[in-house]
Amino acid sequence: MRFPRGDLTKHKEVCPVIATINILGKKWHIAIVHFLLDKPRGFNEFKRNLGAISSKTLSKCLKEMVEQGIVKRKVHSSPIRVEYSLTQKGEDLRELENVLRRWGEKWLLH
Asked: How sure is the predictor about 4, in pLDDT bands with cuts at 50, 70 and 90?
């Protein structure tokens, strides 16, 4: 089903593309999904891989993505550590990541 074009914010409640962009279009969200597609990660792994992100911003992004049901947070007791992984909803973004990779390879790596 196609939704009317024009004022995109007017249709964000009914347009799944705009609703998805509102969630995944936030800075760092796609990068977080990208790193979680391989395996679960700890907070410090994100910091090492993402580099420029502050701890405060990373915490906020992970919290938002947990609340949205994209990322799962698991606390391990021995030793105490927190691990993040993708939920099924997050795993379903693998196809989107593949499309973004192909587009980047075609248009950005020349």
From this structure: low
